[in-house]
Design goal:
Layout: E1 10-14, H1 27-39, E2 44-46, H2 59-72, E3 78-79, H3 88-101, E4 106-108, H4 118-129, E5 135-139, H5 141-144, H6 150-158, E6 164-167, H7 174-181, E7 186-189, H8 195-200, E8 205-208, H9 215-225, H10 230-247, H11 255-266, H12 282-297
Parallel strand pairs: 1-2, 1-8, 2-3, 4-5, 5-6, 6-7, 7-8
Helix pairs in contact: 1-2, 2-3, 3-4, 6-7, 9-10, 10-12, 11-12
Length: 301
């Protein structure tokens, strides 16, 4: 595993969270998953994101997930917890917890559910930034109903509140406007199915879903897509095409169930989701199983 200059660079796996049959958190299984991801070349992990079903966790569970990840992480493997909350004060408490536990950075949504205006968004990040831990903003207007536009991201960066952005809109054109308005703001790939496009646009990181199941193939694809070498794109394209039937699930409503199912197929523990996430429809599950087996048959791991 290559050490990164900045702890939010490289592939941070938006980790799935393992549950026991009674839907209690399997902390031992999660710790083993952290170590497995590190052993397979990932640069870090992002617990308590949507893929980790943080919305269904108690405060005690959510805190323990972070400490479990940090305790399991080997040297040089970075932990970037999600710190999403309804308001700035609660978000800051989660940033403080992450800092005290030894996290290297945090991933932070704008105000969650409340459709805040520009001033409220800036204040939200200002309050969290007071803790002093590097903050990667998370732009997901589909869930938050707030769009962190390139101009707003540039303002947050100029104020010193954020160091990067996880771009989840799927609009790859934004990468260029962000670079124009905030040249030093780090762009992180936010959806698996635009990895190649944002890699070409200069992304320096990927907060990724499918490495939970396919870390080696994901790492090869990421390194080719972000190398800056035009010859590597020719190598990346067939891999991207082969993996894309799975990668596109990352931007669908059922992405948690889909990625956990692929984990089960490859021999990892994905398992059940907590409510309100229900089992996949048979047609969707059959396709994910078939597509996962197909990429395994082609030699991807």
């Amino acid at each position: 595993m290559t050490e990164q200059l900045k702890p939010w660079h490289g592939i941070h796996v938006a980790s799935a969270l393992q549950f026991d049959d009674d839907l209690a958190v399997d902390y031992d299984g999660f710790a083993e998953h952290v170590q497995w991801l590190a052993a397979n070349g990932m640069h870090g992990i992002t617990p308590n994101g949507s893929l980790g079903e943080y919305q269904t966790l108690t405060a005690e569970e959510r805190a323990r997930v972070v400490t479990t990840a940090i305790e399991a992480a080997p040297e040089g493997f970075h932990v970037m917890p999600g710190v999403a909350a309804y308001g700035a004060l609660e978000t800051r408490r989660w940033v403080e917890h992450a800092a005290e536990a030894g996290a290297h950075s945090v991933l932070m949504l704008p105000p969650n559910v409340y459709r805040a205006d520009r001033e409220a968004i800036v204040e939200h990040y200002r309050i969290a930034a007071e803790v002093g831990l590097p903050i990667v903003a998370y732009n997901n207007p589909y869930d938050t109903k707030i769009d962190l536009s390139p101009a707003l991201l540039a303002e947050l960066h100029a104020e010193g509140y954020i160091v990067g952005v996880k771009e989840f809109t799927g609009d790859v054109r934004r990468a260029y406007e962000i670079k124009e308005l905030a040249p030093e703001l780090d762009l992180l790939i936010g959806t698996d199915d635009v990895l190649l496009e944002l890699g070409l646009a200069g992304a320096v990181g990927w907060i990724a879903g499918y490495p939970n199941a396919l870390p080696a193939a994901s790492l090869e694809l990421y390194e080719l897509a972000t190398s800056g070498n035009p010859a590597d794109i020719a190598k990346a394209l067939p891999i991207y095409r082969d993996l894309h039937p799975l990668l596109r699930w990352d931007s669908k409503t059922e992405f948690v169930q889909a990625i956990k199912l692929s984990m089960d197929v490859v021999g990892r523990k994905g398992g059940k989701c907590r409510p309100p996430r229900s089992p996949l429809a048979t047609e969707s599950a059959d396709k994910i199983i078939a597509d996962t087996k197909d990429v395994l048959a082609k030699g991807y791991k």
